[in-house]
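Long-time lurker, finally posting.

We've been working with Cilia- and flagella-associated protein 418 (Paragonimus westermani) and I want a structural starting point before designing mutants. I don't trust myself to interpret raw outputs, so I'm hoping someone here can both generate the structure tokens and explain anything notable. Sequence follows.
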Amino acid sequence: MDDLDRLLDEAQLTNCFAKNTTEDFLNEKYCAQSPNVDETIDDILNGKVETFTKFSGEKYLGRNTNEKQTFRCSISHLGGVHIPLGWSNLSKIKACDQLKCTSCDNVIIMFEDSGWRSGVDYYFLRTNYPNRINLGTKLKNLKGSRAYCCQCTSIWVTELVRLDQLPQLRWICGKHAQ
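Top reply, 14 upvotes:
Generated this for you. Predicted structure of Cilia- and flagella-associated protein 418:
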């Protein structure tokens, strides 16, 4: 959320600056907002982690090296058990294991070597999610398949399927820690 707020602030400042003329930038009020270059160089040479934002000149703390970076799948996939789970990018395709539903705002639960029996509906999922034992009563053994569900939707697949090819699912990658 902080990244989004920072981007919105920078976009707003960019838009604000675009409306001003060159004379305005030469005006003292804009010059006063610019960061002190000597101070910035000293900070870098002294190994301080603080940096300046591009537009506002405000200091913010850089990313802590102990923090884990998070990534979203470039294209999210579902897949059977023979498809490895993890973060998918353009060079390595995997079935996403960090899926989240935007309809019910819950994480997706997966069942290996399973498929859903008929009779799995919204009310069953709503009543039994996230209890894996109760959900398991409507599963059948299907070697090589993987069953997925949230609180409002269920599906099972055997092969690799792109999530954007399944318009009935409102699922997204919820970010992978690296």
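Before you design anything, note these points.
Residues 52 and 59 are 5 Å apart (CA to CA).
The radius of gyration is 24 Å.
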